[in-house]
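Notes from the 1:1 (GR / supervisor)

We went over the backlog. Supervisor wanted to see one worked example end to end before approving the batch request, so GR pasted a single chain during the call. The sequence is below; no edits were made to it. Supervisor asked that the structure be written out right there so they could see what the output format looks like.
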Amino acid sequence: MIEPAIAVSDRPMAPHQYRFVETHAWWLGTFGPHQHLTEHRLRQWIPAQPDREWVLERELTGAQTWLTGSAQEAREDGFDINDVAPVGRFRARYGDFDTARDPVDDIGIELGSGFCPPPPPRRRGSWQSPTPDFLQRLPRDPSALLDRLREDNPGSWFGPFAAAVTALRTALVPAELRAAFFRALSALPGVSFTDDARNVDGHECVALVHDAGRTRTELLLDPADGQFAGERDTLRTDSRAGLRAGTVISTTAVRTAVVDTEGELPAA
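Structure output shown during the call:
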């Protein structure tokens, strides 16, 4: 097991503060045979005390990049090319957001509803939906963590590398566990390290790259502290839907900061 040259550290947080996580994403969308990337922006305020309300803002900018076909061709085929996704502001204890429900207004009242339902029970979490409790239970020894990744995620679609990326994407993985993840992932077949990568916003990153299966996945990390900084998925082979090998089908940039209040935006 090699030791990738990735520094890790955590920003200190006071009990009243929030971890701010902003995601700028281009994700794949499909209208029949017409495929495109759609621009999303997500902002999340995660309290240092996780039993307090978390806040999530989701936005669709309306920007699209067409990979096959065009907006005009999709319209001519009868498709409404306005992307549909949950948008607005959502609140939930422990981050258990129900984006299928109406968003809330600025004072925390659910729009379109005359009552406040009781909070859901606290989730234990899983690799597919990690929670702070789930992350706390993971081993810190890299070899034990690698065994756990392999045992829990034997599939080819959601395998050990994808499971680790899903956990790190939360931006809640503490430095000690991030270091264990990086050592564990470096032992997987097809994984390499590079210190010459950039996320979709152009920020310099280091990366662990999984070059196997149907896609090449780049796990992008902040070189200063090893925090999740984005990801990029690129097809390794032509797809049945007509996308050619080398096509980027998902790309994100993530920045994190510590702020004093929900809704506060850190300096750029």
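Supervisor's comment: Residues 109-115 have pLDDT under 50 and may be disordered.
Batch request approved.
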